[in-house]
Hints:
The complex is a heterodimer of chains A (253) and B (308). Chain A is an alpha/beta fold and 253 residues long. Chain A is built from 6 helices and 13 strands. In chain A, the strands form 2 sheets. In chain A, strands 9-8-7-10-6-1-4-5-11 form a 9-stranded mixed beta sheet, with helices on both faces. Chain A has a two-stranded antiparallel sheet with strand order 2-3. In chain A, a hairpin with a 2-residue loop joins strand 8 (156-163) and strand 9 (166-173). The radius of gyration of chain A is 21 Å and the shape is globular. Chain B has 308 residues and is of the alpha/beta class. In chain B, the strands form 4 sheets. Chain B has a 7-stranded parallel beta sheet with strand order 7-11-6-1-4-5-12, with helices on both faces. In chain B, strands 15-14-16-17-18 form a 5-stranded parallel beta sheet. In chain B, strands 8-9-10 form a 3-stranded antiparallel beta sheet, with no helix packed on it. In chain B, helix 3 crosses helix 4. Chain B is globular, with a radius of gyration of 20 Å. Chains A and B meet through helix 3, helix 4, strand 7, strand 8 and strand 9 of A and helix 3, helix 4, strand 7, strand 9 and strand 10 of B. Strand 12 of chain A pairs antiparallel with strand 10 of chain B. The complex binds flavin-adenine dinucleotide and adenosine monophosphate. Flavin-adenine dinucleotide sits between chains B (200-202, 226-229, 240-245, 257-259, 261, 263-264, 267, 278-280, 283, 296-298) and A (13, 37, 124, 182). Residues 6-8, 36, 38-39, 62-64, 96, 98, 101, 119-120, 122-123, 126, 128-132 of chain A line the site of adenosine monophosphate. Chain B: It comes from Amylibacter marinus. Chain B: Residues 3-181 form the Electron transfer flavoprotein alpha/beta-subunit N-terminal domain. Chain B: This is Electron transfer flavoprotein subunit beta. Chain B: Keywords: Electron transport, FAD, Flavoprotein, Transport. Chain B: Belongs to the ETF alpha-subunit/FixB family.
Amino acid sequence: MKVIVPVKRVIDYNVKVRVKADGSGVDLANVKMSMNPFDEIAVEEAIRLKEAGKVEEIVAVSIGVKQSQETLRTALAMGADRAILIVASEDVHNDIEPLAVAKLLKAVIDEEKPELVLCGKQAIDNDMNATGQMLSALLGWSQATYASEVALESDSATVTREVDGGLQTIKVKLPAIISVDLRLNEPRYASLPNIMKAKKKPLDEKTAADLGVDVTPRLEIVKTSEPAERAAGVIVSDVAELVAKLKDEAGVI
Amino acid sequence: MAVLLLAEVNGADISVDQTAKALTAVASLGDVTVLCASAGCGDAAATAATLDGVARVICADDAAYGNGLAEPVADLIASLAGDYDHIVAPATSSAKNILPRVAALLDVMVISDVTAVVDGDTFERPIYAGNAIQTVKSSDAKKVVSIRTAGFDGAGETGSAAVENIAAVANPGLSEWVEDKVQESDRPDLTSAKVVVSGGRGVGSEEDFKIIEALADKLNAAVGASRAAVDSGYAPNDWQVGQTGKVVAPDLYIACGISGAIQHLAGMKDSKVIVAINKDEEAPIFQVADYGLVADLFDAVPALTDAL
Ligand SMILES: Cc1cc2nc3c(=O)[nH]c(=O)nc-3n(C[C@H](O)[C@H](O)[C@H](O)COP(=O)(O)OP(=O)(O)OC[C@H]3O[C@@H](n4cnc5c(N)ncnc54)[C@H](O)[C@@H]3O)c2cc1C
Ligand SMILES: Nc1ncnc2c1ncn2[C@@H]1O[C@H](COP(=O)(O)O)[C@@H](O)[C@H]1O
């Protein structure tokens, strides 16, 4: 079975985001970028399925600026077999919307014909939580989002999903899209020899135009602003003072 | 303009809180039709009809919709979409599973986790774990929007809209439900509780989480947790608060043994009053806390429970 794993290059999750003073966006110049944490988990899951003999080939796909090559090299170093980069923007500040990403992924899938797509539940930059579901709709495939456990059979997958009330298990027919949640696995680090080997693995490059997909945004970003700041608080000396403050000052108990 | 609001329904149960808050958020956009889609959802539809400002309720009672599977519910909504300019739902895990699928079927973008409706085309939403707020204007013919309900008050329950039953559309039969593992609890719901007491890695074990729960019970509060506490098995997954867990905005949030990573803050920093109990005075949680107590939680939490 062939698996496609879409991986997004995003601001590293440890970096404190700065909103530009003119309200035009978030400053991404000279900040550390990494693979979206959920996508690392998706890559890891694909590798584990390959190690278990259930998957033959893992193809990582990234859409965005040329520098997303680095993210694909990371996926290759972890254990993906080959990679496809779709250049859809010249500017790191220009985020490609999930609908356009889903259309580009569909074009890749029409060519590659995988049985499974493992993607992240959400990109930690736009926090949209949409691409997997959109792709699944465009393909007319089944979907299982927020996976914390995946049992893959030859024509179906049984997936435990993290939902508001607890956990839900569903069985989806293949081909399917599975979006992964944080507790599915602990992604591995790429070893130095594997990083070297990854440099020789195939990385194809295409453009959005090659695939005939219009990536013009549907959402115009009117402005980007800082969230409301909280007023500075106080340190209380003991439990008694805390109780008094909550009763008399805050009036919440 | 007309709005279709997908109610948060599971069988006969409706989350009045989530549905009523989403209703408030979109009331200015036009006549609101509420859709209840589940199995045996007649009672849920009757309840939805009492929410103030609802023009009409559509009830799609069918086994196909019984477990909220995305494919059949999305097909149903897409089949109804012609009559509406806005298709909205509270941003629950169930709706966020379905709405992007609906949007793609309609060839429009989805707008997730909206915190403010500026006008019919323009919405505010947090990005980067709430470290920035983006205002977006949609050029799509229809807007598919999920509402982050924490910041809205629920609509009242004195209405009496008409309920119309509709038949199911064809089920693509792509997936089937196997089981739900739901924790039953007498405590208030995390997303609607007035008070939330949360524990983090500092609590140290599932056993010791009892002291967090005891404080919560004293305050009639919901219990929350950091991702580290959930990953370590101290607390179930549905207690997680944060960027990828639940977003809460109670009157009082008490964080015990939680460092205050941005991903956690994303889920609680809009709480009215924040209390942090942490033994490390440098912990970032103190930067957002109204009241900070530098103490060992194993002393402070039981003492606080006793003092209340
Ligand atoms: C993509 C992504 C998404 C994430 N989503 C979320 C999310 O939704 N929610 C979330 O919470 N996290 C999330 N995280 C994880 C987040 O980055 C932090 O790792 C996590 O919040 C840390 O949890 P913690 O504060 O309990 O643990 P720690 O950071 O280990 O902090 C423990 C704290 O307890 C204190 N402590 C220890 N013992 C005691 C004691 N006896 N008395 C008092 N204090 C004590 C310590 O001083 C410390 O400050 C996410 C991470 C990623 C990468
Ligand atoms: N530009 C992109 N390139 C590759 N994969 C992407 C891209 N955008 C989104 N994805 C995938 O879709 C998931 C969900 O992203 P989102 O819908 O933007 O929150 C991510 O975790 C990735 O797996």
